[in-house]
Amino acid sequence: MTAPDSVPLHALTEDNLASASPDLLRAMIKTFADTLMSAEADAVCGAEYGQVSDERVNHRNGYRPREWDTRAGTVELAIPKLRQGSYFPSWLLERRRRAEQALVSVVATAELAIPKLRQGSYFPSWLLERRRRAEQALVSVVATAYVLGVSTRRVEKLAASLGVTQLSKSQVSAMAKHLDEQVGAFRNRPLDQGPYTFVWVDALTQKVREGGRIINVHALIAVGVNADGQREILGLDVATAEDGAGWLAFLHSLIARGLTGVQHVISDAHTGLVDAIGAVLPGASWQRCRTHYARSLLSQVPKTAQPWVATLLRTVFEQPDTDAVHAQMKHVLDALEAKFPKAAEHLDAAQHDLLAFTAFPYEIWRQIWSNNPQERLNKEIRRRTDVVGIFPDRTAVIRLIGAVLAEQNDEWTEARRYMGRELLAKARLHPIESETDEPDLPTELTA
């Protein structure tokens, strides 16, 4: 196999754009991959290809073909062969997705000469189709902030690296419309895979420009386990305040879309959430996240005593059955009362919500006693939103977070079950009786 030709990126881009070739991204990935492998082989040899050098320790010996399947299609790579020993790119041995993302990100940062029209606008559809939704949304949000003139210095640098500084407002609008339609369809789809026995909810604070100033808004997110045992993103909304009215409206919207069969809601102690659960999901128990509560309890004792208190609390969750859990909680309360009465009072007030998981089968306790599964999802969301920093508007928040959630939902659909069907059926045999009267709350979001 002959050595791959070295093609200038500018020439490659212009040739493909001029012919409106749908293979542009695949061709660019091949060019970058071949160039990267050639550079790595040169480093192994100690000199560039064809160069005479005293530092050379090895020589090239042709190429061997290797097909690489990517979301842009199958790319035929030319892997350099060495006269002595062997060379194989380490990134091809990694998970394909990680290596592919690395190369695609390099390709995506190339500055493309996107044609402008005197009337109307043009934006190549394949640039949207070939990217994952979250990547599309990130580019769209950055571009929106840039063309509206409300971007920060960090976003301006990112806009330049993404090659969106040459896009017109109409082009950015077309891009945003395409994504908003996808995210909107995802957010408003029927929740028809119930019953959703277990639901996790959380809120993420984001900064948004609104009315000439920067304010905090809260992205409310719900995740559930459907009848098949798969995790599913149930909903996303943005509220001005993280209060009872916001949670009430959010939960009502889930019910309107078909949410049924909820028996257990897991979350942190968000303001107004418990009352909203009682109003909208009567009969469902509330599990206070043990991880978040532990941090709250530790704040009640001196720093030197925190390791002891943390270990003490952990023993409650290491018991083999419900009776043992409640018995151990009593021992822990007695031990705390002797040394830290204030902490004991704090734990005593929270124990009912902290031990709500014991009403369900032991086999799923670890999955339903904390909000840790949601925290992992939040980490992925923050990885994208932190790049933006300050969003140009609320729609941009929904666009980016919604795209991340839609992708995660697709991955969960193809993954193994989060809970077995038999365990779910067993869990549904544990009816939960509400111990509090339903609060009198407004039925609409007023904040």
Characterize the structure shown:
By secondary structure, this protein is of the alpha/beta class. The strands form two sheets. Strands 3, 4, 5, 6, 7 and 8 form a six-stranded mixed sheet that branches. It has a two-stranded antiparallel sheet with strand order 1-2. The longest helix has 22 residues. The chain starts with 8 loop residues before the first helix and ends in a 20-residue tail after the last helix. 32% of the residues are buried. The C terminus is likely disordered. One of its GO terms (biological process) is DNA transposition. It comes from Streptomyces iranensis. This is Mutator family transposase. Required for the transposition of the insertion element.
List keywords for this structure.
single chain; 447 residues; alpha/beta; 6-stranded mixed β-sheet; two-stranded antiparallel sheet; 17 helices; 48% helix; disordered C terminus; DNA recombination; transposable element
- Share of residues in helices: 40-55%
Instruction: Quote the average pLDDT.
Output: 79
Globally, the shape reads globular
- Cα-atom Rg, whole angstroms? 27 Å
Number of E strands: 8
Count the DSSP helices: 17
Structural class comes to alpha/beta
How much of the sequence is in beta strands?
5-15%
Distance between the termini: 67 Å
Give the ordered list of helices and strands. HHEEHHHHHEEEHEHEHHHHHHEHH
The poorly predicted ranges are 18-22, 95-112, 433-447
Largest β-sheet summary? 6 strands, mixed
